[in-house]
Amino acid sequence: MSAVPDPTTPPSEARMPAQPQRFTIDVPEAVLKDLRHRLAATRWSDDPGNDDWRYGTSSAYLRSLVEYWLDGYDWRAHEARMNRFEHYRVEIDNVPIHFLRRGGTGADPVPLLLTHGWPWTFWDFAEMIEPLADPAAHGGGPRDGFDLVVPSLPGFGFSSPLTRTGVGAATTAGLWSRLMTEVLGYERYGAMGGDFGAVVTQRLAHERPDELIGVHLTRYRRPSGAAGVAAVTGGREDYGPDEQGDYERDRAGAALTASHLAVHTHDPQSLAIGLHDSPVGLAAWLLERRRSWSDCGGDLESVYTKDELITTIMLYWVTGTIGSSLRYYWETAREDRPLTGGARIDVPLAVGVLPGDVSALPRRHAEEDTDLRQWTRLPRGGHFGPAEVPDLLVADLRDFFRPLR
């Protein structure tokens, strides 16, 4: 691997889309004051018989979380924790991109791009950053270090405001390639992603194989359709003997994603107007997904602290990006960008299978379509793997990239 480049001193000004600028996360006090007013003035709906969340987010649970949000939660403390890392913003093709950067330690750390999904944020990788960048201090070998780049998807969090339309997962893959090669000057790098991050990472593997050392996904979906983002999930016969129950779990998971997929891909702005105006409405929409898609047995706080849940909501609220994040579905579903580079992925590929995820796809597809090097059935974890089981994914990433260095 090459030495870690300094993003503020590009190797060639002619190749640069723009000069990345350091910035500090510092939400205006007026935004926080307005938030407190809105939380305190919430008009609560009636919610009989919903302690088990059968109708959606439980108002009883949400009320208790809002009480803590008002009286116990400290945004400035979490802001300070985020600001321990370097943050940059750069514009590429009229798209604002935020990324966190943490240089790796040890001999020749591997550049590694980590891409989140929805309703994730870049901060879902928070507990993985230091163990990946400084493995010797976190139970790993001194030669297992990674030089980390953790962007926010376009229209999510600090990659805003996104005023350009037509930006979905396929477009993002091209933006990420330019970020890593033109802006940061890496010749080759690794990539990891979950949810939309897995779609973007797969797209990178199809279209930029010469740039990639290897890719790690928390799910592999066989692509179909012009944009290469629709998925072929497979029939019962595609699952192997060690995947008993996965076919049924995949079909059951489809029911847990149906409501948000329908509205996000067809009329996201109608929903965005209400969620942008109400922090409690925003919380209700995000929390239901966190609970349904996590490996938490229906108990959110068995996996996440109240602070972690609220911080995720805050990153959508203080940046005003719930609307543009919802549109990412609409745009991705309609991108007219056929796959280039062939249908097969020849980049070394790994999949860390999360048993509590809403999808459970057959290993056979990855074996037939890709240069599959590692398929790990993790003992626990759901859809938000980096936030739920960071230790397991850190170990899986180290194991996968070790022979590729």
From TrEMBL:
InterPro entries: AB_hydrolase_fold, Epox_hydrolase-like, Epoxide_hydro_N, Epoxide_hydrolase. It holds the Pfam family EHN. Residues 21-125 form the Epoxide hydrolase N-terminal domain. The keyword Zinc-finger does not apply. Keywords: Aromatic hydrocarbons catabolism, Hydrolase. PANTHER family: EPOXIDE HYDROLASE, EPOXIDE HYDROLASE 1-RELATED. Residues 1-20 are annotated as: Disordered. The lineage of its organism: Bacteria, Bacillati, Actinomycetota, Actinomycetes, Propionibacteriales. It comes from Nocardioides endophyticus. Gene3D superfamilies: alpha/beta hydrolase (3.40.50.1820). One of its GO terms (molecular function) is hydrolase activity. This is Epoxide hydrolase. The keyword Transferase does not apply. Belongs to the peptidase S33 family.
